[in-house]
Amino acid sequence: MFIDIDKLPKEGLTVNRDFEYPSAELVEEDAVFLKPVHVELTVKKYDDQVQVAGRIMTVLRFNCSRCLTPFEYPVDSRFDLIYLPEEIEEIKEELEEGDVNTLYYTAPHLDLREIVLEQLNLTFPFRLLCAENCPGICPVCGVVGRDGTCSCTVLGADPRFQPLKSIMKDKK
């Protein structure tokens, strides 16, 4: 969905709709959409600045990074972005603290579909876990820790990592 920046009404534009994306467009390879991406956003123009602010809601399915069990991941995220013409970026020499949410546009339009997808991908945590305290998989027998206990005995740490352990103790 393209928004023509030059044709934005003075009061701005409100968008309230669902977007369908193929799961392959997500940064997480095993992610699957369980619901369409619902978006509520406003686009306003102030001189050369274009503000895109809104909310993204959907539900995805991921595999846990520790136990590999599929789990649902609800997304309800807000964002507030400022777009400036690309010429201003060339004039500016240093980034300031508030520039994190400032982006630049070259064409006379913005692709809301791409903006929403980017913001959705930014909501994912570094490590996707089914639960914060997920015990993972037994390294010996492969039993998922939260499903039951195994009778395996895990020996101490790998002796090859002992030099690293001593370095960490020295730093404390």
Describe this structure in words.
- This protein starts with a strand and ends with a helix.
- It is built from 3 helices and 8 strands.
- The strands form 2 sheets. Strands 2, 3, 4, 5, 6 and 7 form a 6-stranded mixed beta sheet that branches. Strands 1-8 form a two-stranded antiparallel ribbon.
- The chain is elongated, with a radius of gyration of 23 Å.
- The model has no long low-confidence stretch (mean pLDDT 82).
- It has 2 domains: 131 residues, no CATH class; 38 residues, no CATH class.
- With 172 residues, it is α+β, with helices and mostly antiparallel strands.
- Strand 5 and strand 6 form a beta hairpin.
Short description:
With 172 residues, the chain is an alpha+beta fold. The chain has three helices and eight strands; from the N terminus they run E-E-E-E-E-E-H-E-E-H-H.
Topology:
Blueprint: E1 2-4, E2 13-19, E3 32-33, E4 37-46, E5 49-63, E6 70-85, H1 86-91, E7 102-105, E8 109-111, H2 112-121, H3 162-171
Parallel strand pairs: 6-7
Antiparallel strand pairs: 1-8, 2-4, 3-5, 4-5, 5-6
Count of runs of 4 or more consecutive helical residues: 3
Number of E strands: 8
The secondary-structure element order is EEEEEEHEEHH
Helix content: 10-25%
Report the sheet-strand fraction. Answer: 25-35%
Mean pLDDT: 82
Low-confidence parts:
none
Radius of gyration: 23 Å
Biggest sheet: strands, sense, closure?
Answer: 6 strands, mixed
General form? elongated
Distance between the termini: 54 Å
- Determine the structural class based on helices, strands and strand pairing: alpha+beta
Query: How many structural domains can be distinguished in the coordinates?
Result: 2
